[in-house]
Protein 1
Amino acid sequence: MLATLDLPPELTPVAEALESSLARVAQRFDAQLDSDLDAVADLIAHLAGYRGKMLRPSLVLLFAMAAGDQDLPLEGRVNDAHIAAAAVVEMVHMATLVHDDVLDEAELRRKNPTISHLRGNEAAVILGDYLIAAAYHLCSQIGDHGTSLAIARASMTVCAGELLQLSHREDFQVSAQTYFDIIDRKTGELVGLACELGARHAGADEIRCCKARQFGQLLGRAFQIQDDLLDLLGDEAVVGKTLHRDLDLGKATLPIIRCLESDNAAQRERCLSILQATAGGDADAQAPLREELDRTGAIARARADAVAYVEEAKALLDSFPDSDIRRTLDAVAGSVTSRTL
Amino acid sequence: MLATLDLPPELTPVAEALESSLARVAQRFDAQLDSDLDAVADLIAHLAGYRGKMLRPSLVLLFAMAAGDQDLPLEGRVNDAHIAAAAVVEMVHMATLVHDDVLDEAELRRKNPTISHLRGNEAAVILGDYLIAAAYHLCSQIGDHGTSLAIARASMTVCAGELLQLSHREDFQVSAQTYFDIIDRKTGELVGLACELGARHAGADEIRCCKARQFGQLLGRAFQIQDDLLDLLGDEAVVGKTLHRDLDLGKATLPIIRCLESDNAAQRERCLSILQATAGGDADAQAPLREELDRTGAIARARADAVAYVEEAKALLDSFPDSDIRRTLDAVAGSVTSRTL
């Protein structure tokens, strides 16, 4: 998380409190997955390569600090429930990454070979299931039914979003509304829950819990749009994962949707036939597609959408005390659309 | 469940109470999976073809009746926690079936095409995840952390068993001890938990809860051995699922292990080379393999093992009151090794 943030010096204490709390999360994460079976431990070891920005756990912790007793030192506002909840959301997220790599037939994730590529799809499917079970096991240890229900409900929503996306496979003419419905479920739900759990386990009232959740949902939306842009335009060496998978797999993403929206019928047909060629694996169709995206301003529009959601998210923070925590959350929000990996 | 049991007339009241309670379980199961998204509901509809013997929910309910207040009518001993727990164990089990079919590349399950075959591996992987999430969501509604922890822990154990099995893929010389370690985790754990949850939510003491769990673990063991035998010797038209998958996938099962145990070195080599040929897809090797299995008495030994575990399980029931419920549990246990599907 912190490596990708360019924080001003006055926020260093927050960054340090976040870093030491993230270390506790990582410890809890590892302890929960520990196994005396070599067959399990060997696979778990591969997960280290899946650790990335730790966005979701960071949000749990920052909202714990934002909503907690402001008289306490920063780290003192982070309790055991926060640490467990942060490990749980990361575990659920990682399970979806492991299974996504099976589905997407991806070979690279965070510059490492994916588990499905390295150890086969069977191992990856079962490892993902193991992670989900471990996440629920840890969640049940928090001792709060509301949190268990919320985590399970969010996991159902994530799956529903993925099934909705799958049902629109190779349908490039999907509406923007359906696209947002998909990404809100697939990405926004869990990011929103991470923020909410941070606030809730700090004793925040319903209004702040709700604002925290909405902040996360909007951030998740912006994050997914940026993911779409990176998959389309990114440099594999920088992004560190197999790119152009969305088009190969026939997933309509926001730049594509905006591109098709802004054309007249004849131009739309032309654009669609280019898309079908790229989805069919025709690498020569990449350049004309890029031209269409530029000509219609679709890239710029998708970027502007993402930035607008980040701004909308930031505005929700005004229900929390004006503090360095809030400024850090602002910076995290801003980083979502400026990131290149 | 009941269709495969040949119960004497005096057990009809128990069978009827079980049947009406199973109908409540089915209702709770369906309500939990209900979705307003067509993309989800369409896939859920396919699950009807996965409903089979309902062994695990039946065990929850029968142990509820065996351990509950014996002055209450049979159905009155089954409370809401039992119904939810029964639906949860069946949902977790069904998730493993859906994912197993992806892993095994199976085309048939209970005489129906598998979801992976019908709708693709991606849909099957996500649907399995959806089922697991829905199971935990329902489990969290029971409002008992112990149950949530136990279900999550058992799910982790099931996955660990599958990973252990996978790590021994194409290793026909696996020891009987490792084989039992695999099936105890993969199958025994959840069947044991089903029995325990039935007793526990009926207010049984620790001794009875423990005996119920052991009963289920032994039954699960016998069940898995019978599954192995059916995969090897069964008639696809009767069993209703793709057979001979274990050998094709290089899974050592108990008959194979017993066959290799009882030979001298030269005979073992011969047997191994036949096994490798069948694992390589050589259909002509099936007949010589069958000869080896008969000659070494391996089939008979595996069958005898399964029957012995059933008898051991039945003996554990003596800590429960002598009743028609116990006689029904005896019949259920007996059916595990006599079943042909």
Protein 2
Amino acid sequence: MQTCHGARAGELDTPHGTVPTPVFLPVGSQATVKTLTSEELRDIGFSMVLANTYHLYLRPGIDVIEKMGGLHRFMAWDGAILTDSGGYQVFSLAPLCRVSDEGVTFRSHIDGSEHFLTPELAVNYQEALGADIIMVLDECPAYDDSPEKVRKAVDRTHRWAERCLKARKPHDQSLYAIVQGAIYPELRRRSAEQLTALDFPGYAIGGLSIGESKEVMWATVEETAVLLPENKPRYLMGVGSPEDIVEGVARGIDIFDSALPTRVARNGALFTGQGRRNIRNAAFSLVEEPVDPECDCYTCRNFSAAYLSHLFRSDEILGLRLATVHNLRFISNLVNRIRNAILDGTYNAFRDDFLAGYRTTDERTRFEQKRKWLRERGT
Amino acid sequence: MQTCHGARAGELDTPHGTVPTPVFLPVGSQATVKTLTSEELRDIGFSMVLANTYHLYLRPGIDVIEKMGGLHRFMAWDGAILTDSGGYQVFSLAPLCRVSDEGVTFRSHIDGSEHFLTPELAVNYQEALGADIIMVLDECPAYDDSPEKVRKAVDRTHRWAERCLKARKPHDQSLYAIVQGAIYPELRRRSAEQLTALDFPGYAIGGLSIGESKEVMWATVEETAVLLPENKPRYLMGVGSPEDIVEGVARGIDIFDSALPTRVARNGALFTGQGRRNIRNAAFSLVEEPVDPECDCYTCRNFSAAYLSHLFRSDEILGLRLATVHNLRFISNLVNRIRNAILDGTYNAFRDDFLAGYRTTDERTRFEQKRKWLRERGT
């Protein structure tokens, strides 16, 4: 582990290879990162992906994937896999979710059928999938729930984390805990203290990027990250835009995941060093250059912005693929540059340079407001 | 050119390489074979594709593609390209189509705008796109139009073919004529005699596979093919299922194109040696073998039928890609086997073997009915 003003460069050892950190995990909820093959993910530069236990439990079913030889073989991916426990999806996607100490009852968002998930089952399911890193079942309150409600969720998340540890079979998967506490510093501290006492091999910060402002999110990340063990990986769940990765690394985060880069790609928003560009903008329809002339991705090496613009206007699936390849390559390159800057001891300069170039005017205004707010808050 | 009981194995020399025949052209109407990159098409085994002048004229516009350096560069395809003139699409897709000797007025199926296409413009557009083989503008009657109406379309197609020849600039593209005549043997003969007198480098049979029975289609192909010059390529437009390629080759056809293999793939119908299989069938959801264990495509080498089934049930784009790769590889392998059988002098045996294995019970019944019908008809 090498650090640079709080930014950290390390490694995750997994049964499917060593993963350099900081790392971004593309999201393959349904055992596929949308539009891409596993081979393409590897070629783009990724060595670890995320899959969702909730989605795979509902369809095709954990037993089906187990019968097919596990998730790696099912999706033909020989890199590392981290699975989410399903907690966040149950609380955010599933209708009629009812939680008790025993577990959580929810209805499928696909067919309305009723299901019951416990901490023990969440661990069993993730072990059956064969993921390299698995997550505890947690209770995710809304960011604006009352302190009393959030405190109960924090304590339940703690009890569930203990049960997850006990439910583990002696496999070689790493089980990470998830710190909750919404936007309340004292509850984040309570959660971090409870969970670090249990000695998990890695810690996630959950329950953020779900509606609170960026200012509040980063303040919470800062306050929480310093409470986590220095020698263990820190994972900021559900966060992964280019600017957020850069900001998160500065606050000591090692692992990110987000569907944002692939989702906005399918909407035609492509990352460039100067910020997001929308390929549906009429200005691109006659551009012979690639969307990002500085990019070395398959899309930018082979196709004009005009061709990509044509594919999007013509509703061609190849457009979704090429945009996804570009955005993921942008993230992969960004993470490599971040790691090199940390190792070179120049991360602060890299971060300032990147953010100065990347943000649009509106974003920069917002960024300055945030800095001001943080200064006033004394952080 | 080598022949075997009427089946022919030859070569097409184009500015973008030599293409062995028989050949099947995947359809890339909008400058993309749906879901795939040009690189993948080449890897699957194709050296020539079809694009549609009608679609590209409407979107992004012929001038845009010309400015971007031509169609090959636009879609990053260095193999050969055949473009259709737009005649068939104008008559079948565009609303409010009005034809006169001068040309055809139609409305865009995209935005309703009015356009006018002449034989001269059809040639100019295809030359601007830079296709290797271009087609004359023809008038396509419905298969059940009256003989009088079809005769007029045949004569107009002849006059337009003469105008296309005159409109050509001295480029290295090959301009093929299209024999019309619907299902009337005497009108097919009239069209073939008119057009072969003009000495085109290749001849297409148009106006088939548009609603008439297979029996009538093959009878018409047989009657028409024998009227075409032996030393020039013969192209059966819009036909390209596995069984139809096998039947068409037996009747002396060299070139096929059809969106069917890619379209049915996106509907979940996958070709196997035993016929089409629908991946949405519940039986596939637990199959660890690939969809077609005999297939060497990327999909069958890497993924179980269960995974493909899961992708289709989950509406994942990767499913559409993997099914398309499989069906096109099946066709590519089939065409290679056909060519080898012709060169070995064993095409009749190959054809019987393939059709006996490929057809489902219903199709075989229909096939036998056709044979009976053809025997009774004395052909």
Protein 3
Amino acid sequence: MLIIMKTDAIESQIDTVVQRVEDMGLRAHLSKGEERTIIGAIGDGRPVMKDQFLYMPGVDRIVPITRPFKLASREFSPQDSVFPLDGVDIGGQGIVIIAGPCAVENRAQLLETAHAVKEAGAHALRGGAYKPRTSPYSFQGLGEEGLQILAEARAETGLPVITEVMTPEQVPLVCQYADVMQIGARNMQNYSLLHSVGESQHPALLKRGMMATIEELLMSAEYILSHGNRRVMLCERGIRTFENTTRNTTDINAIPVLKSMTHLPVILDPSHATGNWEFVTAIARAAIAAGADGLIVEVHPSPELALSDGGQSLKPERFVEMIAQVSAIAQAIGRCVAPSKAGLSTGCVHV
Amino acid sequence: MLIIMKTDAIESQIDTVVQRVEDMGLRAHLSKGEERTIIGAIGDGRPVMKDQFLYMPGVDRIVPITRPFKLASREFSPQDSVFPLDGVDIGGQGIVIIAGPCAVENRAQLLETAHAVKEAGAHALRGGAYKPRTSPYSFQGLGEEGLQILAEARAETGLPVITEVMTPEQVPLVCQYADVMQIGARNMQNYSLLHSVGESQHPALLKRGMMATIEELLMSAEYILSHGNRRVMLCERGIRTFENTTRNTTDINAIPVLKSMTHLPVILDPSHATGNWEFVTAIARAAIAAGADGLIVEVHPSPELALSDGGQSLKPERFVEMIAQVSAIAQAIGRCVAPSKAGLSTGCVHV
Amino acid sequence: MLIIMKTDAIESQIDTVVQRVEDMGLRAHLSKGEERTIIGAIGDGRPVMKDQFLYMPGVDRIVPITRPFKLASREFSPQDSVFPLDGVDIGGQGIVIIAGPCAVENRAQLLETAHAVKEAGAHALRGGAYKPRTSPYSFQGLGEEGLQILAEARAETGLPVITEVMTPEQVPLVCQYADVMQIGARNMQNYSLLHSVGESQHPALLKRGMMATIEELLMSAEYILSHGNRRVMLCERGIRTFENTTRNTTDINAIPVLKSMTHLPVILDPSHATGNWEFVTAIARAAIAAGADGLIVEVHPSPELALSDGGQSLKPERFVEMIAQVSAIAQAIGRCVAPSKAGLSTGCVHV
Amino acid sequence: MLIIMKTDAIESQIDTVVQRVEDMGLRAHLSKGEERTIIGAIGDGRPVMKDQFLYMPGVDRIVPITRPFKLASREFSPQDSVFPLDGVDIGGQGIVIIAGPCAVENRAQLLETAHAVKEAGAHALRGGAYKPRTSPYSFQGLGEEGLQILAEARAETGLPVITEVMTPEQVPLVCQYADVMQIGARNMQNYSLLHSVGESQHPALLKRGMMATIEELLMSAEYILSHGNRRVMLCERGIRTFENTTRNTTDINAIPVLKSMTHLPVILDPSHATGNWEFVTAIARAAIAAGADGLIVEVHPSPELALSDGGQSLKPERFVEMIAQVSAIAQAIGRCVAPSKAGLSTGCVHV
């Protein structure tokens, strides 16, 4: 941490700051320029509370140097983290595709979708049993019944299941039914939930909040990692900006930036990131081209009848076409779509 | 809801949309312009799922007409909602001031602050026992011990207490100790929590998420109201924008806009909205001038020793000055600072 | 400037950076922490190109220390800058109010408005002769004819005139007709225009771009100041954010922040900042409460017939009411509305 | 345009609005719902001033239906616009790559870069002679001398030249030296400049402003097109958001969205969109995968010595690698990198 003094700070103010730095068990290092003095507070890498200096007389501002996350950083773990999900490696050479409806609406809808996405080559099934909805009057999901339907779809298709968890109490139940717990964008900073997911030791997909910085996403991952749960994948799903032609703005920069900052797998959700099925395939291609490790995509057999997010869902036939295009992009950058349960050739030889 | 068809939509596509509108129990109303057809879906005011039309062939876009919230709207309840808090009216003629430290750090710190803010003329005491922190390594609050200290401060000073609740399970415990439950910005769309707070029937302060629109804030209030809990006050606390000279951007427009859209009391948190004590008083004045019903302000006896948010906390002597200035502004617009337990004259005669 | 080295930077990389710092005529100051080395580049206060270091091996990032503007800073000129405008001090104790229509539409409209705002107590008349419009098909202003009408209004009412200038070539003509040149939000970073306005030595009102930071606004002011033109006032007019209930988001924080960073007068435009006449008066009050030195407000005798921005224009009778309310706020903070040509008592004694 | 009346609008208010609609030569179409009345104003497709209704008693809000741009729309011109640039088709099957330094610094630097980018397979040379800089104290470009150096580089390499124009007066001079005029992000809404570029009939590259919506970009293109100049290409270069890990946020959604809304060629600038050379190649790949027609990339032989934007410039050897990767992506989606003057095989057969 660097403490930048004001240009008119007097000697006694500088001394007081230095004293406090040393009182906190840190080493103070002075640098006197023509205009002002800068005090470096050198420690053992643990974060220091900058607010404790911000208020002191003569202090202009504080510049943090050490990144506030550790376990999530690539410096801590230079190798890519890879974890297996029912035979498929998340974060490995092969691109992983998770697909399914926004919400589990009923047994027939989910099973039809599950079979369709499996045949198309998906590696996992998504579907919400608990739905965070802006309106108290909207469909809130089937709850445990939805989880049971998901389990049935897994039994039928063999696809691992991923579903959202909304409260700490739901964690044990969701772990029982699902292979991966999803933490939704609105809950990215629900620290009680992150804590519980961390303690569960169950694989987690952490979605970036629509107004969260990349650093905050990594801090939320750190919450989970700090409880010993290392099976975390991150998901870019679009951020909120002034542009509203699309539902969200896909932060495509976040893909290579995250891959440089963290060892965790990074996937992209082109459905929420665009909010419009017409643009989903183009953004899915862009995500893989930029270096994403996978995709999570909304697929619905009859989007026009969906109880939520129909407008951004692909029909199964369009999803087939999306996988074909994504596969071509994957090969162009020396990767491939991971081999799927459907046994479809994805046109690439696994190394 | 209006369904705007594409300019090249054909007759059969229009017919299919009209059919679906009627299948949903709504009345369809066609308007054919030179360029395109617009279909109005006229119902009983209940929200309709626009996604169900977005995907239909020939549809360009959907324009919602009915606001998605009802109980929170001024149309539903034209009179200002006023609710008493230990003798003070929230949302009435008098400005209400809530003050205290960001976090309850220990007994001495809280009691000292409680006495100081009472003497300065505050109407309620704030202080966090459960703290949502970006970093898992930061001070997370004292938990129930913090609640006990708050209760002790109430017993000593007579000030009602307001504190944050982070999970549905904490609701009963927090209700037991606190007069008002605060829902923090990061939990504004934690729907499970909103549900529990709604069912508790306990007064609530709902902070706007840093990424939430005014409409989303009202939708979250609607969650609480729809469970029959009508004692809800809203709090603007700054939004996230590209400007980062200040911690957040105070959305001062939100004050008159909210007052026109809803009957609920609206207060402002100048501490988070600026992130810097130097600007807190100016923004507190602006909030009251713009029509806010109250303020929630961070006050700490030794901000430079605070375990969180010290940089945005006022010292007690500055808080005294802030109340004096806010009182002058209140009078300039024909209001006053509500009479306080300290019995201080605020320079205004209550009408 | 501080050069933060990567944690794995090697000795030779550090040496190379130090060498370059010294080659640039600066002094290098090393600070070796547990984790990494920081190199301070200490100079004479002139800005250094940080990009020249960003690319060097081993460099993590650059932290600028010296602010990039000088003449605009309060450190350079601790006293408030005050400049007279036809008998009224801009930036002094008295609040200055500039009012008039968005655009000069015709002689009758402007003269009627000019008389109305004068009688209400305005100190200057605004009106656009050159209009920057998003659409090439919208009314683009009357051009020089509009300037002539403005001059006529000044002759009739005695009010000084302020109008927008859009290109460097228009500068001499606009100077000839207007007392103050306005640089619009979309031209805040039109550096050729800033250069010409700087050289003109004519008073200027510089509006903040809707997506410009406070620092960028001050850098644009620096362009004008650096040509020796010191009569510059700054104008907050709302920024673009994700919130779109209002046309823009008033950055009320910018008022006290600018007053702390610069000696230049700061005014606010509540018409553009809200985009809705219903909220103009509340935001005008807030601006003065927050410390603004003045207001620029759109007033139109028949807003529903205005060729542009009618929805955010006040009718003359509402403008009268706005001044009364602003005057009460001004007194509450120990200021007043400056005495006007209309000779109206504004209820305050000039100190 | 739809005029949404308030729920409590009375009959006479509705009548007055209808009257005005008809007075404007439009047809009024009433739709009376349970809650409120909606009035459609049906015309000949010309934009109507919505502000003229916003102020009327009983009016709640206005919903525009007709898009405000026409010549730029895909509805107006369903086929992709393609225009030749010295033998290469912009907007055709082949991807076009424009490369060069941010600024022309001197003869040696530009010629070295020009040869390097030509050999790597670029189709055009970029380089700024007039530089918009945030600081008045930064290098402002060589002006006409820079244009002469660009012309010399064209004579030597045969590459067409693209350079920025900042004011209307510079247009004739820049047309004389350059093959394509660039309108920079800060000037996207400099309407006087757009007007002059439109009248010049010279090819133009229009960069999206960092704060401009997609619709505003198309409105600015409309300014140029409306003067009969049809050779316009659009450039996404990143927008400003709350995320500041990268210099800007690449709005990758804008690529497929623009391709669906307009017939004009769309390219992307990964250098400004990321601000960091490490991420340029990944975002270049993503842009092509998303459907962009080309790229404009900063290349500098010695980025660490660049007078501007060194940190985001690729070294020539990295640029060679970028083209190879982009070429593989282009093939994966059935396109190719256009044949270049360097005669390099780009691994694709032109159809």
